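Is this the right way to post structure tokens for a design question? Let me know if I should format differently. Anyway, here goes:
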């Protein structure tokens, strides 16, 4: 990268900002052009600055990182956003990504990982800490499927029989229902679990500990 990556840091704890300043402020690849411990002032401040990456916390009392991310994405679409947080909840990570964040790393990360994340996001790519990525994937799966409580007892029973590799006719005979009824149940099961194949359905069932 020819020019230093211009970074703006947002965190409601000044000690975190000071620590980040020490960690990356003297790196030749970066230039910290501004900081704020009040996210409600950031949009106004950014109007007078040229930055490449916004490095922000997620849990802030005045304005959440998610809401800040949405505002930045709306007002400054060219600015890349990297979340730096102690929050490892998959739903929070998913909401940050939906709001426009290009990456998510944890405050327990190493200096080298932080530098790598900043450079990666600055280049227009995605970067997620391993734990954050796994939690994001888990949250995404949950958001795309119905809760298993919405599967009826009969549907759960049929999933278990599919897992035992029984055909529709064998399932119908065992449950004393018609084969057409089994087919209807299977269509409903695929729809509720957002799967399209037996392999996908069985993966869903194992992940949710249905089988």
């Amino acid at each position: 990268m020819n020019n230093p990556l211009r970074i703006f840091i947002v965190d409601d704890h000044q000690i975190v900002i000071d620590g980040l300043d020490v960690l990356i402020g003297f790196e030749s690849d970066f230039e910290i052009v501004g900081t704020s411990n009040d996210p409600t002032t950031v949009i106004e401040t950014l109007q007078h600055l040229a930055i490449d990456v916004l490095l922000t916390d997620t849990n802030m009392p005045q304005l959440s990182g998610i809401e800040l991310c949405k505002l930045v994405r709306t007002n400054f679409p060219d600015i890349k956003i990297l979340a730096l947080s102690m929050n490892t909840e998959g739903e929070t990570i998913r909401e940050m990504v939906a709001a426009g964040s290009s990456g998510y790393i944890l405050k327990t990360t190493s200096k080298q990982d932080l530098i790598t994340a900043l450079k990666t996001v600055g280049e227009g790519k995605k970067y997620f800490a391993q734990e954050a990525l796994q939690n994001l994937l888990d949250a995404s799966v949950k958001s795309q499927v119905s809760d298993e409580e919405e599967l009826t007892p009969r549907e759960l029973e049929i999933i278990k029989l599919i897992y035992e590799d029984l055909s529709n006719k064998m399932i119908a005979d065992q449950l004393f229902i018609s084969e057409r009824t089994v087919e209807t149940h299977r269509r409903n099961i695929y729809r509720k679990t957002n799967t399209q194949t037996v392999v996908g359905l069985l993966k869903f069932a194992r992940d949710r500990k249905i089988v």
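Format looks fine. Someone answered above. Worth noting: The longest strand covers residues 30-36. The two ends are 51 Å apart (CA to CA).
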